[in-house]
């Protein structure tokens, strides 16, 4: 087996795609609540860019179960970001399960991403207008 075949996706770019039953409703949510505007649009899809990374919303007849994080935004100040999003009408999940509890919508997660040099992460979650569960995380070094 030659080197390119050994790890065929190792050099690939990750392309996040989130389903949306109603693209107009999703566009309004992402603009009004998150302050994001699409950088490109095609029939059935909206492309967004944040800090050089991209994600897309696509028209889908299916819906997300919304029971797990589908995409997350890494931020430097989670308190400021969560507070700002709450002012814009974003509702954060409150979680209280063994090993994970939010206070004011924010959880402390010990040991997350230690291989990246972090000792923990602070995280918060919310659903978009289409039921996708999105996260906000701040690495703790």
Describe what you observe in this structure.
This protein has a single domain, classed as 2,3-Dihydroxybiphenyl 1,2-Dioxygenase, domain 1. The mean pLDDT is 91. The termini are far apart. It has three helices and ten strands, in the order αβαββββαβββββ. With 141 residues, the protein is α+β, with helices and mostly antiparallel strands. The strands form two sheets. It has a six-stranded mixed beta sheet with strand order 5-10-9-8-7-6, with helices on one face. It is globular and about 40 Å long. The longest helix has 10 residues, at 23-32.
SSE inventory with pairings:
Blueprint: H1 3-6, E1 16-20, H2 23-32, E2 40-42, E3 45-50, E4 53-59, E5 69-74, H3 78-87, E6 96-97, E7 100-103, E8 106-110, E9 120-127, E10 133-140
Parallel strand pairs: 1-4, 5-10
Antiparallel strand pairs: 2-3, 3-4, 6-7, 7-8, 8-9, 9-10
Keywords:
141 residues, alpha+beta, four-stranded mixed sheet
The H-and-E topology, N to C, reads as: HEHEEEEHEEEEE
| Total number of domains | 1
Which band does the percent of strand residues land in?
A: 35-45%
Top-tier CATH class = Alpha Beta
CATH superfamily: 2,3-Dihydroxybiphenyl 1,2-Dioxygenase, domain 1
**Helical proportion?**
10-25%
Taken from the alpha-carbon principal axes, the silhouette is: globular
Helix/strand class: alpha+beta
Low-confidence sequence ranges: none
The average pLDDT value, as a whole number, equals 91
- Counting DSSP H or I runs of 4 or more residues, the number of helices is 3
The largest β sheet comes out as: 6 strands, mixed
Radius of gyration using CA atoms only: 17 Å
**Distance separating the two termini:** 40 Å
CATH architecture: Roll
